[in-house]
Structure formats: structure tokens, C-alpha cells
Amino acid sequence: MAMTEKKVQDQSKAVQISTFESGNEMAAMAAAQINYHVMGYFPITPSTEVAQYLDMMKAKGLHDIELIAADGEHGSAGICFGAATTGARVFNATSANGFLYMIEQLPVQSGLRFPMVMNLVTRAVSGPLDIRGDHSDLYYGLNTGWVILTARTPQAVYDMNLIALKLSEHKDVRLPVIVAYDGFYTSHQKRKVNLFRDRETVQGFVGEPPKGFPVSIDKEKPVTIGAHMNGDDLMNNHFQQSEALYKAYDVYEEVAAEYAALSGRHYDVLDLYKMDDADVALFLLNSAAESSKDVVDRLRAKGIRAGVISPNIIRPFPAEDIRVALKHVKALLVAERADSFGANGANLTHEVKSALQEDPDNHTLVLSRVFGLGGKDFYPDDAQAFFDMAIDAANKGIIDKPFDYYGIQPGAPEKKLEQVIEPMTGDTYKTGLINVTEDEETNKLKVRIPPLRQLTGKPKRFASGHGACPGCGIFPGLELFFKGIEGDAVILFHTGCGYVVTTAYPYSSHKQPFLHNLFQNGPATLSGTLEAFFEMKERGEIEIDEDFTFVMITGDGGMDIGMGSAIGTALRNHKMIILEYDNEGYMNTGSQMSYSTPLGHMTSTTSVGKAKQGKPFHHKDTAQIMASTNIPYVFTGTEAYPQDLIKKAAKAQWYAQNVGMVYGKILITCPLNWKSADRDGEKIMKAAVESCFFPLYEVERGETTITYDPEAKKKRIELSEWLQYMGKTKHMLKEENKDMLQEFETEVERRWKTLKVKHDTPFI
With a threshold of 0.70, does the pTM exceed it? Predict the structure, then answer.
């Protein structure tokens, strides 16, 4: 984060410096200055940067926060809750479906009254998937029992994060707090901000962590946290929680006033722009409110008394303040970046209407419009259109259309898009050149494949024109695998690079049936698909050949957040293939660490600096984990050894069609985030195999066979020869990191020797 040392000169307040930063940078700066104890997190766009900035700062020794990379957002919420029970200060950041994935944990934390602060970088909730900003995630949080603050600018993100902790820990509140700001607008756009120069100023404002409350680690006063309750007790518990949430209103005003005295920045419950005498007004959350203020000025110049209302806190909902602000307003348009489907208006529309219902003297007409979904831009002209609607209603004294969507574009039949690629089915993918037979004596499969050149004419499963980075190993690896798959396939991708670059609506690179679901649920989704297929087939409701092959593609860390779903699917032994392309990180969200990232490797959340040297623990051996579920076939492969991979693909198809589930892992390059040359993919993959970092083997009906042994072929190389090809690992070859390199070499050797024992001894 670039800093200028221009001091804000105001001797009555703490010394501040002025800089240009984004909302995510300011959230991280606030957290670092507070110096929280723990941050449990999982990367999801657009909140991911918060953890990345904190990781970079920790590598420089700028804070002491324990950053814990979870297996998914549900896990991150559990980490945060567990840490909060100790009395530690806890921080998190998330977005969109990640927020929903953790949502069952959120009422647990608020219902048990443990403070923490979470930044919700708002983003569209899929499906369909859209990674840009709206408020559909935020609205799911309205009933979780958390205090919710909103931040319209990067400056407000910083300030609200400081206010949030003090509010959360107040003795009359003791509730977790969300600070919500707009994804990609506030989160990524740099604006001029002021921040306190000295951490001591921030820590003086928030004070010491409060004592005297029940915690999980007091051996002198052991407590039970989360005891089961029956109705009478639960009623009392929720009543107390409700009262605390309403008290948060008064505490917020108290803390905001204290902060204003320190910083010179005021955050009233409502941000009211020229509302004193307004006849017409807009009610907007966050960044759109800022965009509308210039329009107010233009209308005022024409003699139209217009204004804008934007709340700084929406839980508790400031009903009385809204009644006062709208006392003389003739027409109000509530514009929301989310819908409450089927409710004739989104959530805050109904809350505004409910507030006005309590005032019999108020006759404000309220219009509701849903706008800006999925990051659709909001311009001053759009604000002008909203004001025009409100002005029209005020002049007529009636509302022509109380609820509507704004900015939709009905399609024109004459402009219907034509299909770009021809779908391929049936015999297109049947070459007859691959032969798989079962050996009755060994109970294993024999595979005969032709020379590779004879398979080059086999059509590709993915059309050209996808948006993958130069040198990306995903599609060469997948296409090579599919050379060994005969006939039709139903293919599911969970969210990740492979999905995003092939399905940018309205186009698709997929030539056969394709499904998408979220990171954590791909295996379960495809298992439901195939079981429904077989059931309908058995009932005679569909007439389709049974030689469909069901393939779920995972990658970009999907076997972390999706591990539970994958294991459940494996234990049920559905007839399908899970194929993982392993690029050693969460590449689709910006190269964050995954559990498949090896020791010492640099990612955007395992920085390299004087205080950190890359990932601090070893990578997960997913193939061995899946083999332990006793599925009939597990394999590893890479495009650097094409015959080996094609044979394994053919075996995988036979087992998936005849016996049960298959899991395969193919190592692929990611030049962008591995910091390697685009052209070196095959060389890097070959070195990974010959250094024994990524052994090629299969586990067939419980028996392990190494399919390429670099030692036996006298081709084994030192691990350092593989590491030198990648910029993300070159630091490991420095003298000061020799202990880390040795630890990595020792672990690779241990896994290789274990694998050799399994190869030599069946059923181990």
C-alpha cells in the first residue's frame, strides 16, 4: 500500500496522514492497526484482497494477526466463532455465496453474544454466477442478529471498521458486527483517505479487550457455551439478544460521536443530503448514494427540492430517524441492488414503509425499484431517472407503478443469437481405437491404445476461443484426458478458472451437456444428475444410450471446500469420475493458497518477506485421501506423459460405467501465478514427476502401481531442479531457506518411499 506522508494538520485531533487507497486496503489497514488476534478466512472475490493485504503486511512484520486459511467459508466462520469464545479479537471478510455458505454459523455467534467484526464486500449471489457487486448477499444477513453498518467510501470503510469493534464489544451490545461496502466500487476503486498515523491512536480508541465475560479458556470458571434450550429459555435468550441489538443504536451514536471528536469525521445514523426541505428524495445504500448527490445539486439549481437519504446503520433499522427525515417529503423512491422475490419490493422498501406506517401524519408516497444487479453500473443519469419518477408521483399524488425493475433490456426476437459451435454427440467421440478388457485372473484392466497420432483426429470436447491465460495447462491436460474417453459425456465444472473462461454468457466453449455448481457442491450435484438419469431410464421415461460418462471437473482448490462433498460422493460410490486439475492454488480468485499448495511456495496469501517465507505447511495428498474411501480406481497423471494419462482415462471410463466412482488428479501449470514461462509447461510437469514430487501411479481395486518410476529409469532429478523453473519457488533455493528446502525434500522422499512400499506390497 503506497503511503504519502502528508499530515492532516489539526492539533485538536490525533495526527493523520493522507493517501489514496481502496476500500479493501483500508479494511486491512484498520485490522492491522487494531492488531486483531485471529482472522479465519477463505478467498472469494471481491473480498479476497483484504486477507492478501494483511498477509503482505504480516510478511513485513507490520502486525501479529494469526491468519488462518480455512477449507471454506463455513470453516472460516467456525474458526472465527471458536476464537471469539476465548475473548480474542476476531476479524473476517467475505462476499456473496461465501457469506451464504457460512450463514448457518452466524446466528450461533450472535445468539451466544460473542463480538467480532466481519467485512462483507457485497457481491451478487449466484446463480447464474456473477462476481460483481450488488446487495443480494447483504440482504441475507438482515435476520442473523448481527449489527450491520454500511460504508459508502474507502474512507468510511476504515472509519466504520474502527467504530465497529468498539460497538461490538460494548457491554450493552456484545454482538458481532458486519461492515458492508460495495464490491468493486468501494472495494477496489482508490480514493483519497485519511488514516491515523500511529497504531497507538487506534488502539487507544478501541481500548483493551473487555474482561469479565464468560470465555471458553478460563479453567477457574468453566462454562458451557451453547447449551441446549427449550422454548421458554430460548424466548428469553432471543428477547435479550433483541434488546441488545436495539441498544446498539444508542451505543452507535455514542461511539460515532467519540470517533468524530478524534478524527473530525461524522457518521450520523442517517447520511442526509439536503433533506431539510426536500419534496422528493432517493433512499440508497452505499456508493449509489454518493453518485446521486451531484444530481441533487443540479435539481436544486432548477428549483426542485431534492435530497438523498443513505443509512450508516441498517441493523438495528433506524425507523424513527427515517420518520423524521421523511416528515414533509411528498415522494420517496427506494432503490435497491437486490430483490425479495415475490414480495412486491425488496427488503428495505418494506422496512421504510413499515416505519412510515407508524406515523399517521406522514403521507409520503413510496416507490420501489430494483437496480444495479450483478454490478450493473449506476450513473448520474440513472439517479436523474429515479428522481423523475419521484417527481411524477409527487405531482400526480399517486404512484403509477409501485414496484419495478430499472435497467432491464427486453430481448428482440429478430436479434436472437445463433449457435456458434455445432454440438457433438454419439459416434463423434467413438473412435473404436481404444480397447479395455478385464483380466479375470488379476481383477485388473488391460488397456490398448493406438499411437497418439491416431487420436489427434478425435474432436476436442472444448471449442477454441475460451479465455484461458497463455500457457494455461487446464485445457491441454483435460483434452488429453478426454482423448481416452469414448462416446458422450455429461461434464460438470464447479466455479474456477476452467469454468469462468469457457462459459461467458451468451457463449459457451462446451460441445456436450455442461453443468455448473458452486465450489463446495459439485460432486453431490453430479451424483444427483446421474442417479436421476438412471432412475428415469429404468422407468422408461427417457430413451438414451447408457454409455454416458459423467465427469466432474474440479480444480483451483476445489478439493478443499469441496472435500466433504467429494468424500460423501465417493462413499456412496456413484458411477462417475471426479477429475482434479491441480494448479496448486485458488487461481480464479487471484492465486491464493490452497491446501494443495506445497510447502514454501509463494501465493498471494503466503507472501515472502522478512517475517514469512511462503506457505508454512505441507500440501494435501488428495489422491491418497480419496484412495482411502475404497473407490475402485484412483490415478494421477500429467500431459507430459500422454500415453500414461490416456490409458488411465480409458480405465477411469470403464470403472465409472461398470463399477463405481473414480478420482483422478492431473498436475497442470499456471504460468501467470507460478511465475513461469508460458512455453515451459511440459518441461515443468516432467520435472515434477522426475523429482518424485508428483509421482505417476494408480490405485486399482485397492492395489497401488507406480506407472512411471524415475529411479528405475535412472532419470530422477533433485527437487531443486523443478523449483528453479518457477518464480514462486526461487526463494526456496536461497541459502537462508536451506532448512525449508530440506524439510520439503524430506517430505517428498517420505511420500515417495511410502508409495514404493505400497507398490511392492499389494493391499497396503
Answer: yes
